[in-house]
């Protein structure tokens, strides 16, 4: 009997990604030369598809001088945005609204005199953009890093939108003992939490899990980690062409989930390819 193929109840492109893709589609249709400031989303296949349509990636606003520029979903610094608006014919802000919320929260905390701590992955473009909105802010990626901070009087915490709730709790727990006041604004995206919970739920049931999304995508990587903790036969792929028949040998239930930068078309392509490989 062919195995069951199940897709997580919450999987794939989130609101912010869908919004950005709609914006770039509209721009590519009639706004001349179009660029994105950094990869629009962390999905190399989508970025490659956009490049084939003439939408190129630039590393600075200067690379889009006189043209149309989209600010990536992960956001940018106030300085870069100002330069973009001065240099480019049009600037379309594709920053995810939930990322914007983190920027605003960080800036507000800084203006109120808090030492801002951004819980997340150092070097990630979203985290770097958030830091830029709160001068003097620091990034913390673990409870140990939080404990290594000097003792502070007033700490304001915001979070990378794709971080784990458990990480936030661990870091806050470590900060509480090092500061007189800790104020937390939980900026983790609801879609991120939903994806993670649904992946954990499905991985408990599946014999094999396939996680779809860019390998440079933080939220997809976390889904793969969550899945592997429950289902050792977890495979992280960027597309259907990476699937191998041997992965599914003996499986009765195959689970599929996808990161927030993965369009529905890529999920469907993977599902169809799994069906071909297992004879479903």
TrEMBL record:
It comes from Thermophilibacter immobilis. The lineage of its organism: Bacteria, Bacillati, Actinomycetota, Coriobacteriia, Coriobacteriales. [4Fe-4S] cluster binds at residues 14, 96, 189. Isopentenyl diphosphate binds at residues 42, 74, 124, 217, 219, 261. Coiled coil: none annotated. Dimethylallyl diphosphate binds at residues 42, 74, 124, 217, 219, 261. (2E)-4-hydroxy-3-methylbut-2-enyl diphosphate binds at residues 42, 74, 124, 161, 217, 219, 261. Binds 1 [4Fe-4S] cluster per subunit. This is 4-hydroxy-3-methylbut-2-enyl diphosphate reductase. The active site is at residue 126. Pfam families: LYTB. Its cofactor is [4Fe-4S] cluster. Belongs to the IspH family. The keyword 4Fe-4S applies. It catalyses: dimethylallyl diphosphate + 2 oxidized [2Fe-2S]-[ferredoxin] + H2O = (2E)-4-hydroxy-3-methylbut-2-enyl diphosphate + 2 reduced [2Fe-2S]-[ferredoxin] + 2 H(+); isopentenyl diphosphate + 2 oxidized [2Fe-2S]-[ferredoxin] + H2O = (2E)-4-hydroxy-3-methylbut-2-enyl diphosphate + 2 reduced [2Fe-2S]-[ferredoxin] + 2 H(+).
